[in-house]
Design brief:
It contains 22 helices and ten strands. The protein is an alpha/beta fold and 535 residues long. The strands form two sheets. The protein has an eight-stranded mixed beta sheet, with helices on both faces. Helix 14 packs parallel to helix 16. It is a multi-pass membrane protein.
């Protein structure tokens, strides 16, 4: 009798494991509440018990290895990425693998990844057990394997990029690339760029309360740009900074290079970016970021594009009064902004030509943010979950930084750019955000810029030429990189072709990728550029 009970109940563990994991995957890939996973699991288990999965009447054991093990593993990776980041960006995956992920602050993500790995091991063991004990599963899982391979977005994206490598017409974007200006400026203001990690303009929606109010208050004194959407390959920190400083999407070095499995030694060396242009004009340039400069190639990018001082967590922690006042990524923003004020004082007092400072915050980092102690003193206790708390903190700290600099006269003859580096990833209000038309933050402040609101269909690529024109450069047809100055009437690529078209072209592009990484792509002739741009 005990042996019979064991035989009758031993099918429960694999069926239950598969049911729970299937239910969780469905809730991750849809907007269904997390608790609905138990409904899907119960239905799965019910069907499995009624169908006698693993214990058919004419059971024939066979020691086989299921075809679906590899496709299931790939699906597990996709579900993990979707659960962690919301939108799965293959470009981000490839770039971070090559640029390096040392010194990242995602300790929580590592624990989550370990749990996912354990769950996937349970899935693979369960499928193997059922396939060996049930000939129906042996037949069915082969078709499941084909379906998983055909439907996995990871494989679809890799297939698109592979097809682009051998495509004959893969230079649509490259034909529209315009080299950076080489002429001198009509004026040479200082420049302060503040990247607010993940603080998209979508948070200005009334349903998010007063979280964005301090940025609205800043915008009353400058130029507020609305409609800055997110093109593919611009949706993570390095990609957002490169889009706004170089006017191009960050296409990873990828399989076009013999050294694809070696760490990067430079980041987009084939083009001139904001730092290269300003350094040629005599600017003294500094980058300050609270996280490690080694993560995702930030240090390589800024050093390789003419920034003289590049400091991240490693250097800045030594400047703290309390070296223990850090988070898993690095410095809190109140500490970073104190150091930023000191750096601007140093540059301004030197009186040795114009200066430029690029600052990268961390307060709004998904999934919960890292609100500084000054915010906790102002806003009260943080529940460790509500991202709107961190958004409000980030906006207030940025406004306070600008007010402090202005009160000391450090922003005289200075262009200030406040922008999000990219749209946020999965956070506590993810469902509310993704139901809206999402936009990046972009605000310009300067004595020569009258306050106004400019509504354009644009991307972060258009930030680059906008900055250049606001700094006094004259641009041919108001264009630089793939962008158009939003201070002009020239139509952007999005206005001409739609964001969907740009994303589709990007997936087919290889010539621009060569330009970014090797400089191997031939420069398009001037006679080609104009007609291509206008088509």
């Amino acid at each position: 009798m005990p042996a019979r009970i064991f035989r009758n109940t031993s099918t429960w563990p694999p069926i239950t494991v598969l049911g729970l994991c299937l239910g969780y995957a469905i809730t991750v890939l849809t907007r269904l509440p997390w608790w609905t996973l138990f409904f899907f699991a119960a239905v799965w288990v019910g069907v499995g018990v009624k169908s006698r999965w693993g214990r058919p009447l004419n059971a024939r054991y066979r020691k086989v290895w299921p075809w679906s093990l590899a496709p299931l593993s790939l699906l597990g990776i996709y579900v993990y990425l979707a659960d962690s980041f919301g939108n799965v960006d293959l470009g981000a995956v490839f770039f971070h693998l090559q640029a390096g992920m040392a010194e990242h602050g995602g300790a929580g993500k590592m624990i989550t990844a370990a749990l996912y790995t354990l769950c996937m091991f349970g899935v693979l063991v369960s499928v193997t057990w059922l396939s060996r004990h049930d000939q129906r599963w042996r037949l069915m899982e082969r078709f499941v394997a084909i379906g998983l391979l055909a439907s996995n977005p990871l494989l679809y994206g890799i297939g698109q990029r592979s097809a682009a490598v051998v495509a004959d017409d893969a230079d649509w974007l490259d034909h529209r690339y315009v080299a950076s200006p080489t002429s001198e400026q009509s004026r040479a203001p200082n420049l302060l760029v503040i990247y607010l990690e993940s603080i998209e303009r979508t948070y200005d929606d009334p349903q998010f309360g007063d979280a964005y109010d301090d940025l609205n208050a800043l915008g009353e004194h400058g130029v507020v740009f609305e409609g800055i959407r997110q093109m593919e390959n611009t949706g993570w920190t390095m990609a957002g900074m490169i889009a706004s400083q170089c006017g191009v999407p960050l296409m990873p070095a990828g399989l076009l290079h013999d050294s694809q499995f070696e760490p990067l030694k430079s980041v987009v060396p084939g083009i001139n970016c904001l730092g290269d242009i300003l350094a040629a004009q005599g600017y003294r340039l500094s980058f300050l970021g609270g996280a490690s400069k080694e993560f995702a190639g930030k240090g390589l990018f800024y050093r390789g594009h003419q920034f003289q001082r590049v400091k991240g967590k490693e250097e800045l922690t030594r400047q703290l009064d309390n070296p223990e006042y850090v988070n898993s990524w690095g410095l809190y923003d109140d500490s970073l902004y104190d150091i930023t004020v000191d750096e601007i004082r140093r540059l301004d007092n030197a009186d040795d030509g114009p200066w430029g400072v690029v600052n990268l915050s961390i307060t709004g980092h998904a999934p919960t943010g890292f609100p500084a102690q000054r915010c906790i003193e102002r806003q009260g206790p943080f529940d460790e979950r509500d991202i709107l708390y961190s958004v409000e903190c980030s906006a207030w700290l940025a406004r306070d930084l600008i007010n402090r600099l202005d009160s000391e006269g450090l922003l005289d003859n200075t262009l200030v750019a406040v922008m999000s580096d990219h749209l946020t990833m999965r956070v506590s209000v993810w469902d509310e955000l993704t139901a809206l038309d999402r936009e990046n933050t972009f605000i310009l402040l300067g004595d020569h810029l009258p306050p106004q609101r400019i509504q354009r269909d644009a991307t972060m690529l258009d930030v680059f030429p906008t900055l250049l024109e606001a700094l006094g450069f004259t641009l041919d047809e108001h264009r630089a990189g793939l962008g158009v100055s939003l201070l002009s009437e020239q139509k952007t690529l999005v206005e001409r072709h739609s964001l969907e078209t740009l994303n589709e072209r990007l997936r087919q592009e290889t010539a621009l990728q060569h330009r970014l990484w090797d400089g191997l792509a031939p420069q398009p002739r001037d006679t080609e550029r104009g007609p291509h741009w206008n088509k």
